[in-house]
Write a structure and sequence with these properties.
Layout lengths: L1 E5 L13 H15 L3 E7 L7 E4 L2 E6 L4 H11 L4 E5 L5 H7 L4 E6 L10 H10 L2 E4 L2 H10 L7 E3 L15 H14 L6 E6 L8 H14 L3 E6 L11 H13 L3 E5 L7 H5 L3 E4 L9 H8 L4 E4 L14 E4 L5 H13 L1 H17 L3 H19 L11
Parallel strand pairs: 1-2, 1-5, 2-4, 5-6, 6-7, 7-8, 9-10, 9-12, 10-11, 12-13, 13-14
Antiparallel strand pairs: 3-4
Length: 392
């Protein structure tokens, strides 16, 4: 079966300039190739990547950003694919259907745009045009079903995850060595505990609340550092007013709040390993942030806002804490302090998270669930006895 995975037009794949969707495609595609699928990934060009190559059994074809979707459509018109999976750009479905009338079309949704940035009639047409829709969380699936009955019977939430072997847990001997080296590199005192934030530095990611929370944390746990990994945009190391305000606030609170700026995805794992607690204070309806999976893979306890799909993988009091008062710094501080008070609790939550990644939330499992859907859609197309499409 020949399948095409179509990236958005914003970032290259693999995710050399970050990007959760590009990372998901890059990590899951080799698993699909090992399942004997003929896999082609389409993405925009980047000066550091060849325009075409084959890596880990996956063919990559890259087109200029300015003409990306036109070039992709031209390619699909010339080369037949049994199944085409379109990531997030739901408005491309119509054009793809015109040039690939006999292909199975799967729409993979990673945010709330469908039905929120398109009117109802267009949204219904998109849903009807797609043969199937996959979302990254039940939160996204529920939102779509509430709005459009047309999605019923052709919609499934599949969690992505992380490859556990990419991350070294803090509680291992190797993790302790990495922790020591990273603290030396960043100038963090060896006896300090570390709270970690990873994400874009934009107001709706809530980093300002976490910085303010550190005032209350340090009243109780003076030897605590906050490390902030991120920039204003994907791979953009520039400074804007919001980042300037963050740094000014941080300077007033503690000299042990560290800004790293943008860190490439293949260099970020040690920042998780050296940390004691991960905090995701998102203020918007986060579909299900990749940073949760990354911190879980490193064996960290997680403190997360009760927004969007985050409570689907973080269970309050089981593998972390869910913050109901998500815009209140003191609420984050209380949860962080509970974890700093109790090393055994931190380790228990962290080990549970690591196990969840190994057993449930990983790209191998994600690819297997996609395979179940692909097989069922293929059988349906061949008019064979109907199978249950939803993965187990």
């Amino acid at each position: 079966m020949k399948i095409a995975l179509i990236c958005p037009a914003s970032l290259p794949c693999p995710p050399i300039r970050s990007g959760a969707i590009e990372l998901t495609i890059d990590r899951s595609a080799p698993y699909l190739a090992r399942m004997n699928y003929d896999v082609t990934v389409f993405s925009i060009q980047d000066r550091s990547l060849p325009n075409s190559e084959k890596v880990n059994g996956v063919k990559f074809i890259r087109y200029p950003k300015a003409t990306y979707i036109k070039d992709v459509l031209d390619h699909l018109n010339k080369e037949f694919f049994d199944l085409i999976q379109v990531y997030n750009n739901h408005q491309w479905i119509w054009g793809i259907r015109k040039v690939a009338r006999k292909s199975i079309l799967v729409l993979s949704l990673h945010n709330l745009r469908l039905g929120h940035t398109t009117d109802d009639n267009k949204s219904k047409q998109i849903i009807n045009t797609a043969d199937y829709i996959v979302t990254v969380s039940k939160f996204l699936a529920s939102d779509l079903l509430k709005r459009y009955k047309e999605a019923s019977g052709k919609l499934t939430a599949i969690y992505t995850g992380e490859d556990p072997w990419r991350f070294t847990p803090r509680f291992t001997p190797e993790g302790q060595n990495i922790t020591y080296q990273m603290k030396q590199e960043l100038g963090i005192p060896d006896d300090y505990r570390i709270v970690l934030f990873v994400g874009r530095l934009v107001d709706y990611k809530g980093c300002h609340h976490l910085i303010q929370a550190m005032k209350y944390v340090q009243e109780r746990h003076a030897k605590t550092a906050l490390v902030i990994v991120g920039s204003k945009g994907f791979g953009n190391k520039g400074i804007n007013d919001y980042i300037s305000e963050l740094k000014a606030s941080a300077a007033e609170i503690s000299k042990h709040i560290y800004f790293t700026n943008f860190i490439p995805v293949n260099q970020i794992t040690n920042y998780y390993t050296m940390s004691d607690i991960f905090v995701c204070p998102s203020q918007w309806e986060e579909p299900l942030g990749r940073v949760l999976y990354e911190s879980m893979a490193a064996g960290l306890p997680v403190v997360a806002a009760n927004r969007g799909g985050m409570p689907e993988v973080i269970s309050n009091g089981q593998n972390g804490f869910i913050i109901e008062q998500y815009d209140q710094p003191l609420a984050y501080a209380d949860a962080i302090n509970k974890l700093l008070d109790n090393e055994e609790l931190r380790e228990t939550f962290g080990k549970r998270n690591r196990s969840l990644i190994c057993e449930r939330y990983n790209f191998g499992q994600y690819a297997l669930k996609l395979k179940e859907i692909f097989k069922a859609l293929e059988l349906k197309k061949q008019n064979k006895p109907k199978e249950q499409i939803k993965p187990k």
